[in-house]
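Co-fold these.
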Amino acid sequence: MKQANRGWWYTTTGAARERRVWGTAAVIALALAFPLINRFLGLGWEAKVIPIALFIILALGLNVVVGFAGLLDLGYAAFFAIGAYTAAFLTSPVSPFAFVREGHPVNFFVTMLISAAVAAGFGVLLGAPTLRLRGDYLAIVTLGFGEIVPLVVKNTPDITKGTQGMNPIGFPEIPGVLFAVDPVPWYYLIVTVLLISVVITSRLRTARIGRAWAAMREDEVAAASMGINLVTTKLFAFSLGASFSGFAGSIWASYLQVIAPEQFDFSVSIFVLSMIILGGLGNIGGVIAGGVLLGGVDRILFDWISGFVHGIGAAINNQDLQFMDVSRSRQLIFGVALVFMMLVRPEGLFPSARRKAELHAAEESEGVAAQERAVVVEIE
Amino acid sequence: MGEGKDIDLLAAAIVIGITNGAFIALIALGYTLVYGIIELINFAHGDLFMLGTFACLTTLTILGFGTEVGIAGTPWLALVIAMLVAMAFCGGLNVLAERIAYRPLRKAPRLAPLISAIGVSFIFINIGLFWQGPTPRRFPDLLPQYDFLSQFFGLHTLVRFTVKDLFVLSLAVPLMLGLAWVIQNTRMGKAMRAVAQDSEMALQMGIDVNRVIAFTFLLGGLLAGAASLMYGLYNNNTVFTLGFTAGLKAFTAAVLGGIGNVSGAALGGFVLGLLASLTVTYFGGQWENVGVFSLLVIILVFRPTGLLGQIQGDRA
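Predicted complex below.
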């Protein structure tokens, strides 16, 4: 039991642990070498991989809320929007702030921190009254919030430029690096932020607060009677998750150079949620794998399939196939994947041992037998 | 003159609100019935309603009334058939979804069926997209354009109470009363109440819990199907994304009335319809959903049990 609490690299011993360390090192090395590989093989995937990496940052943040603390947040895109608009307000020439318009944009890296703080602040504002509610009510409140934010942006064109969107947005400034023309610095910036996020979330998971989240997620009453303050513990998870979404939003705004309310609708929240459910709630490696998998399907595989289908259509001279939009089935595929995962493998493809034990323990009605199994799995 | 106009405007908003409230209430009943019995927020319910409008549209098209606008005689028989088809379709689909996506998760942690319901909602939306395409579809305008206030009573006001309003109300209210009767007076209704109170105990008393739950989903689907015809005939349009906002509004109504409470959902539907139409009248259409969702957040914060909800610490 003790070992399980010390961090994912400690959960196994000996050869298995060594494999894990090497595996992690290999993934990091691959991630760092990707631009070279990309150029060497002529894949031209920069424009696809950068959004995937950014969405993995979002997934890591949402994983803190849903995976660690067990709070279902369906309005995560709202914080993403708040972060992006904060960045735009602080750096764009069309900002509502006079000092920014008059040529004094805030430094990008400062903007990132401010975006994170603003998003976390909204997280506290929304969370403080609603986190007392039971789980599925929270889901609906966050869903409503996720709807309100883009609507308010759309309806206040004086401040946010409404549906027209805000453009341009300030670039990061590092001497000698041209963010405006080259995607490679973007890639490294986002991967660096991603690695920092991984370190932060994995350390948090095993810290005192992380163990409190796990205890709360498994049994609120028991956790409360052990002296955990449920509201502040939940609130911390919620606003921390929001802050991840906030700085990811500021990077996204600067990368895209234009933001508009429809980029932050419900499907973004669900896309990120699908990533962490598919990969394995609560398990950081799983979340990343889920993000790579879903992002890859969404950005790379769909393109291939539609190219393939259009090719067949051209070959057999079938108009329908030639112009079929495969991404129209995107939601269908996500929907089927969500239902299928819940029915067959609710713990995700790469679950954390603890989460798996929880989910399977709940399936069995004999409490004692289930508890025994849970203990066995954790000791492994 | 000014004051009279203000009152007219208010009265017009109230009539629109009550009529809109009627179909919001019917959808809200579907949420509240399911929540009351298995404590699941049936996320896909709004999209079920959307598919209902498509079923009506397809049925009316097959019957030859797909594109009619303002015809002389209303084809009542076709409307009855369309409504029955939509009710059967929604009821059946809801039971099917329950069987496939929710029943296997009965003992899973709370979030599992909710996420599964989100998945079902996505599947429904995509079915709708393939069925009627991405652009809004016109729904045939089959009811006569007769305004009782100006044409029957000869009043000169902005307020309109047309055949459409009458149609919606005279269908929705009996359906709600019928539902109340089923729950209060039939054997199945009694079983539903028993399962809602304590499903394990109900099982021990010999109630087939799975059948009762399936029946609850059937009732919710039937009401959504009926609401879909009313919505189509009243608003004369439908689109595959309709379910999301309709569902959220209805869910808000259910929470407003006290989720799990059947008469609360009906009341909540009317109150929400009024609130939405007043927001549209006084703040503009683009603020309608902001008003609705803000109300939802406010209720959940200050009175999570709703207007008529029971005082149950655990419920909220």
